[in-house]
Amino acid sequence: MSEPRVVLVTGGNRGIGRTIAEEFLAGGDKVAVTSRNGDAPEGALAVAADVTDSDSLDAAFAEVEEKLGPVEVVVANAGITRDNLLMRMSEDDFTSVVDTNLTGAFRTVKRAITNMIRAKKGRIVLISSVSGLYGVPGQGNYSSSKAGLVGLARSITRELGSRGITANVVAPGFIRTDMTDELDEKQRKEYLSTIPAKRFAEADEVARVVRWVASDDAAYISGAVIPVDGGLGMGH
Ligand code: NDP
């Protein structure tokens, strides 16, 4: 078994982020999770931080570094939706989603790479969505933010690839969480009919891929978009 690493997962108090944190914990790593309410799965260090606020993220990283050590794996998972058709989407609906999902990932990664560059190693995993490259009606804000993560990962790869740092995107399709529980029956049926696998996934199916792409086995994979979507977005 490899040495335990320090892993930080944003938005790790519930949903996919929590399952990702549990997956790293099960693999023996030291895990910190951030969220606005500061909750965490058992065994993880819980730190309150808002990804829209650089100062709170900076304080969270400082606390994790002090209690667990420098962060070697960062998973930018915190995300929100504010769906609406473009005609009805307010500018605030657009900018707040981009601020959390894309700029939030930028803030998280920017803080994380300071130590990664020094250590000459690091794993960055950005949680995007099938929506980012496939496009979804009513998700102009969300799709834009999730597509932006691909550009971010690829730029990081070109900037920092020579420093032992990889940056990859994991793009889930429909995963059973609070976010998808909000769908009504009609939407659920419509979505299921478009997914080749004819089912939604469980969060651990995403979490295992995240842990793998952050492992030594995936050292030569960077700038990739890894879909976990039952075939929904294939070709995109
Ligand atoms: P949830 O709504 O269950 O969880 C979202 C997480 O993000 C929570 O931990 C929440 O914590 C955190 N978060 C939101 N805003 C902020 C903020 N400003 N600062 C810090 N933390 C924040 O979502 P999911 O688990 O479903 O989604 C997780 C990620 O996966 C998201 O990026 C989402 O876009 C993506 N995804 C989800 C899919 C799905 O089917 N569920 C499909 C494709 C992608 P708190 O509110 O307590 O601060």
From TrEMBL:
Residue ranges occupied by any Ketoreductase domain in the UniProt entry: 5-178
Alphabetical list of Pfam families matching this protein: adh_short_C2 (PF13561)
Segments passing through the bilayer: none
The family this protein is said to belong to: Belongs to the short-chain dehydrogenases/reductases (SDR) family.
Protein's name in the database: Beta-ketoacyl-ACP reductase
